[in-house]
Design a protein that fits this description.
Elements: E1 2-3, H1 10-20, E2 28-29, E3 43-46, H2 51-59, H3 69-83, E4 88-93, E5 103-107, H4 112-122, H5 124-131, H6 137-161, E6 165-169, E7 175-178, H7 180-186, H8 190-193, H9 198-201, H10 207-220, E8 223-230, E9 236-248, E10 251-260, H11 262-284, E11 288-293, E12 298-301, H12 303-308, H13 319-323, H14 334-341, E13 345-351, E14 357-367, E15 373-382, H15 384-427, E16 434-435, H16 437-440, E17 452-453, H17 460-466
Helix pairs in contact: 4-5
Length: about 475
């Protein structure tokens, strides 16, 4: 090892050397040491002239633990100032308890135990002696204080960086601390907010909600509500508030976490308005519109569907149970085709379970990203009246066809008779009494109004012989 190895800023090193002249800090520094101005600082050294160990030895006292606490504190204090790093020193061997030397390890508080453990692994012949030592309570407390300080710094950084407004209130509901987000939300500076009462930011008509949160938080450890707060300029802001009991500077306080929900409320209101508009449009459709899942359960139905299908509530019921009155899908059910093939279907079908009424059914799949039909839309129109009209029309057309066949047959027979009369007139040397040119031209089924008879021009004998 080396004595008085100079580390750190020169002025402080000169101060250490000055103190060494009295024997306080004359040390042998091990070559294993790695002193550096950061958390990797590591120093192992022997103190050959510890007055504390000498005092114990000279008095004849016996101890099982190291005794050179002042030396450890003095050395770590000087090095801490020199390197700008928080350090502690632990005596692992001590002449006062029979060891060959007073040996110390110095490092940052959160790493000292790891260094001691590694030293014990590297020096197994000394491990049993070192186990009887450890870190003096003073340095344990110092390490705990350092850990507490670091945690407080972490909490403060989190407190300051939070996007939610954070307010700490005392038992009198006075603000004792706030974060920057709270200042932005309420429009105050931190100095202006500290000292405000809860009544300054909670309007009178909403103060009861704060009192309920306060009471519930005391009973359950946490409480929350959506309410309204007042900004510095008097404007109101909708907020979501969560209140939690908190120990602050050794006294009971409340931590209020406040989030501005104005934008969220606007989105919710817009979504609700859009939903109402969609529902109004959905219900205005005169056709029956039903949305089903792959299990044939009805998820949504418009007003026309709800009014047209009697019985229990539509939503949640399987469509085949409601429409067909069966426990299984109908063999010709369009939904089976939709879910089976993933294709749209259009059918006209008559349903005995609904009074033998006729329906025009369009079924459309709703596919997932993989292209599989997971839902289906039924658009159903009652076409019973149209079907009845079609049946009446078909019956009328059939009657007209029968009548036409009878009328045409009679007309054809009359043409044949007139042709015979014309033939007889020709044989008699007379002019043909009937103009059958239309028939001769193949227009037997044409307009009968085009026929012309000349029976009136014939003599009475001709009319008597050949008139109809």
């Amino acid at each position: 090892g080396a004595r008085h190895r100079p580390y750190g800023p020169p002025p402080l090193v000169r101060g250490v050397r000055a103190g060494c002249r009295g024997g306080w800090a004359l040390v042998d520094i091990s070559a294993e040491s790695r002193p550096s101005p950061d958390e990797d600082y590591y120093l192992i050294y022997d103190h050959p002239y510890s007055f504390e160990a000498d005092a114990w030895i000279q008095s004849g006292c016996v101890t099982d633990t190291p005794v050179c606490i002042m030396n450890a504190g003095y050395s770590s204090g000087w090095c801490e100032e020199s390197f700008g790093v928080t350090l502690v020193a632990s005596e692992i061997l001590c002449r006062a308890r029979g060891d060959d030397c007073c040996r110390f390890i110095m490092a940052p508080p959160h790493r000292i135990e790891a260094h001691i453990a590694r030293y014990m692994r590297d020096k197994p012949h000394l491990a049993a002696r070192i186990r009887k030592g450890g870190i003096p309570d003073f340095f344990v407390r110092k390490r705990m204080e350092e850990d507490l300080r670091q945690r407080e710094e972490q909490y403060r950084r989190i407190f300051e960086a939070s996007s939610d407004a954070l307010l700490i209130l005392d038992r009198d509901r006075l603000v004792v601390d706030v974060n920057p987000a709270a200042c932005r939300l309420y429009g105050y500076t931190r100095e202006e907010m500290v000292g405000l009462s809860a009544r300054d930011i909670v309007p009178t008509d909403h103060l009861h909600l704060f009192e309920v949160c306060e009471r519930d938080a005391a009973a359950a450890g946490r409480s929350g509500a959506e309410t309204v707060h007042v900004r510095h300029d008097g404007s109101r802001v909708e907020v979501d508030v969560h209140v939690t009991p908190l120990s602050y500077q050794g006294a009971p306080h409340l931590l209020a976490v406040v989030r501005d929900i104005t934008a969220r409320r606007r989105v919710e209101e817009a979504m609700q308005a859009a939903a109402r508009q969609w529902q109004s449009t959905f219900d205005a459709i005169e056709d029956l519109v039903i949305l089903c899942d792959a299990d044939h359960r009805i998820l949504q139905a418009n007003r026309a569907a709800r009014e047209a299908v009697p019985g229990p509530e539509l939503v949640g019921t399987r469509c085949f149970e409601l429409v067909h009155g069966t426990q299984e899908p109908h063999p010709n059910c369009p939904s089976c085709t939709v879910f089976g093939r993933g294709e749209a279907v259009h059918v006209e079908m008559q349903e005995p379970n609904l009074g033998n009424r006729w329906f025009d059914v369009h079924a459309y799949p709703i596919n997932n990203e993989a292209g599989t039909a997971v839902r289906m839309v039924h658009i159903i129109r009652d076409i019973t009246e149209r079907k009845r009209a079609e049946e009446e029309l078909a019956k009328t057309l059939a009657d007209l066809e029968r009548f036409n066949r009878l009328a045409v047959g009679r007309e054809l027979r009359m043409i044949e008779l007139k042709r015979e009369v014309n033939g007889m007139a020709g044989k008699a040397g007379l002019e043909a009494p009937y103009d059958l040119s239309f028939a001769e031209a193949g227009k037997a089924g044409g307009d009968l109004g085009r026929r012309r008879t000349r029976g009136a021009e014939l003599p009475n004998t001709a009319q008597g012989r050949g008139g109809p």
